Amino acid sequence: MKKIEGGINAAKGFWANGIAAGIKKRKKDLALVVSQKSCTFAGSFTTNLVKAAPVLWDQMLVKESDSVVALVVNSGNANACTGKRGIEDTRLMAEITAQAISPLGYPARKEQVLVCSTGVIGVPLPMETVEKGILWCTENLRDDIEAGSDAAQAICTTDTFSKEIAVEVEIGETMVRIGGMAKGSGMIHPNMATMLSFITTDAQIGKATLQSLLKESVVDSYNMISVDGDTSTNDTVLVLANGMSDCPFIDEQSPYFETFKEAFMFVHTHLAKAIVRDGEGAGKFIEVTVEGAKDKATAQNLARSVVSSNLVKAAFFGSDANWGRILCAMGYSGSEFDPDAVNLSFSSAKGTIDVVKDGQPIAFDETKAKTILLEKEVSVYAEVGSGTGTGTAWGCDLSYEYVRINGDYRS
């Protein structure tokens, strides 16, 4: 596997575009991704009981449709908590897109168009603007890197940078590509976040296999990140596979399954980490690894609890080696471990420092600890016993800037 240039349209047969349709006051706000051939697809969605209209639409398609051809995404408006009108506007977005791309050689029904929205909750979509934007976006669909980047920019809200990745992997004697784009900066919490992530591949793979792979990858990537503890109404991960590489068919019995799975997981993990690095107002990227737990689920839950703690985040913002907050967060995680068996350390590019040994505090150099924690990327290592469970979660610090951004988000 190797990283290559490109994002959502790096895989063969995918075209994209992103424009400023006018949904937002400025910047790009509408993206379109279209495949030259119909795609098998998979989806994973928010656990929030309050689900945006596009989430309900996409969940229905995952359950009832065999294939899709296109994906349309708007930013600046979440189309959430908008009642019957929101449902109708989502359906209309799919229908307009299907009608717009069909004359271009991409025949589609509305049931073959996935829809996503992100932005302010509780405001109806400006459908006249959205419709004009879809038609305009369709006119300039392209398969070059710039078009993919335009699409990645158009799905952003408070993001400070767009998030893209593409890799190439050999399946049999055929090169297969997996590309993706994501958005997310705030309302980020385990069990996904106010995040959208879209993956395309030219691999030949069945819908059931793709759904199984996505379910597994979400557990170890998007469900292991936290910025602020809020789970959104619009969280969505979608994967489209058009088979245009003509590689050998991939399923669980394929000799190439593990090779594809590794590349697939790499793409999702890369995008998940990029979301955390762009946490609203964040100055530090924090990686927490727990080892020695009784099983993987326990280790992951302990790690998630640490990166989700606002007190831990605040300590990292101040570069304060307040390890007690980490043990506290592990203690209320709901997972069992022996506090008297815990070893804890901090590390960064400036070195490593142990702070707890067998559950007891170690006298450590506060100046050295401060130097380590002042770095932009900091790791926490916690050993909690002699079990085989290991889990890693990613988060960021909590700053004054986060409050400023979210204090006037609607203005």
Describe the overall structure.
The protein is α+β, with helices and mostly antiparallel strands and 411 residues long. The protein has two domains: 2-275, L-amino peptidase D-ALA esterase/amidase; 285-407, Ubiquitin-like (UB roll) (Roll), CATH 3.10.20.340. It has helices spanning 53-64, 83-101, 127-139, 145-154, 207-220, 257-277, 296-308, 310-317, 323-331, 366-373, 400-407; strands at residues 2-3, 14-19, 30-45, 68-77, 113-120, 163-171, 174-183, 196-201, 225-226, 236-241, 285-293, 343-348, 351-357, 360-361, 377-383, 389-396. The strands form two sheets. Strands 1, 2, 3, 4, 5, 6, 7, 8 and 10 form a nine-stranded mixed beta sheet that branches. It has a seven-stranded mixed beta sheet with strand order 9-16-11-15-12-13-14, sandwiched between helices. Strand 13 (351-357) and strand 14 form a beta hairpin. Helix 1 (53-64) packs across helix 2, helix 2 (83-101) runs parallel beside helix 3 and helix 7 crosses helix 9 (323-331). The longest helix is centred in the middle third of the chain and has 21 residues, at 257-277. The chain starts with a strand and ends with a helix.
